[in-house]
Amino acid sequence: MSRRSATARTEDGPRTPGGDGAARPRAERPAVSLRGLAGPRYWPTWLLLFAMRAAATLPYRWQLAAGFGFGRLLRLLMRSRARIARANLAACFPELTDRERARLLDRHFAAVGMSFVEMGIGWFTPIERLRALVRVEGREHLEQARAAGRGIILLSAHFTPLEVGFAILEDVWPGVSAMYRTQRNALMDALVRRGRSRFAAEQIPRDNVRALVKALKAGRTVAYMPDQTYLGNQSELLPFFGEPAMTNIATPKIAQIAGAVVLPYLFRRLPDDAGYLVTIMPPLPGVPSGDPVRDTLEWLAVLESHIRVAPEQYLWLYKKFKNRPAPLPDLYA
Question: 0.85 exceeded by the pTM?
């Protein structure tokens, strides 16, 4: 367990439901059926679920040990993913030596292993224990946006402690909507939707932009992670750690259409057993400006700065630099 007290506090005092002083309804679990998902092909996923539920009951130091140990196993099993991560790290951190990048890759797999434990923490840990584990800074920015009567885009990215970072929203800012991507594994898809219903009163498919805009125009808060979404003509080749990457530029366009404010929502696991830090930042300066490339570069600067604090906790296992036009090389060939 974290060394901090279990008293629920943000930097501006006790947490209260709702951003305008009025209580908003908490998220209700949707009726996501698991019927027909008990066959042998799903047994590994069921085993993973039982392990996550069990890990959620452990003291935090034991959770860290279990997660890091699982990460060492994944390092041996996921060799193709390790090659992808190695290519990403070489592109983004050319200033590091080969040995330093190898150590970073090892730390990344430890963080990936911990992410499965963090799913259990985020989905099953009682809110009182989450309060003790997670410190939240910057809630006043949510309050100010709510007071102005604007919808809010909580703009984030795929970090390994994702499920913990968003689970605390149940306590900090109930009634959030969230974008989601359908998982290939039908059982995992159902479990993710059930787990995230803890903080998300509404889950919007990632390709349903109309529903997203509607929610924002209604003054709702929407959690959005566009860093792994490529939308054809809504993408541009922009530098990520100095390396050109096809990048989603739709966020500022959506914000402009909906009249929404864009707040970076970032989180990381702290060293040792100190728990987690969630940072809700002020609105991105001048966003939306009418220039989506300029606005996206503003966000990428914030994102890169956050990644550099704990680079092992960004998800490097996917092909960040895929689909680049010629003559740019295929980093994964």
Answer: yes
